[in-house]
Amino acid sequence: MNDGKLGLTIDEAVARSGLGRTKIFENIKLGKLTARKAGRRTIILSDDLSAFLKALPVREAA
Questions:
Q1: C-alpha pair distances (Å), 42 with each of 32, 58, 61
Q2: Is 0.85 topped by the overall pTM?
Q3: What SS3 state is found at 9?
Q4: CB 3.0–4.6 Å: which of 7, 29, 32, 54 could bond 43 by disulfide?
């Protein structure tokens, strides 16, 4: 997942995670995904996105 880019915009985080913008912002609001602000821009560190995705529950086999 890490191409050397440290910070991702919301749109980049959406593209990499497969989640929608609403889910990204919802998890930021809930404190499950850490975001940073640079002026008006919201930045998510690649490592934070990766850790968030790895912490999601594993789907059990049917």
A1: 15, 28, 36
A2: yes
A3: coil
A4: 7
pLDDT for the residue numbered 2: 52
Number of H helices, E strands in the chain: 3, 3
Q: 46, 5 in Cβ contact below 8 A?
A: yes
- Indicate the Cα dihedral angle 57, 27, 43, 39, nearest 10°: -170
Convert the pLDDT of each residue in 33-54 to its tens digit.
Answer: 999 999 999 999 999 999 999 9
* Dist. CA 45–CA 7, nearest whole Å: 4
At residue 19, φ and ψ (nearest 5 deg) are -90, 160
18-22, 26-30, 35-39, 57-61: least confident range: 57-61
What integer best gives the mean pLDDT of the chain?
94
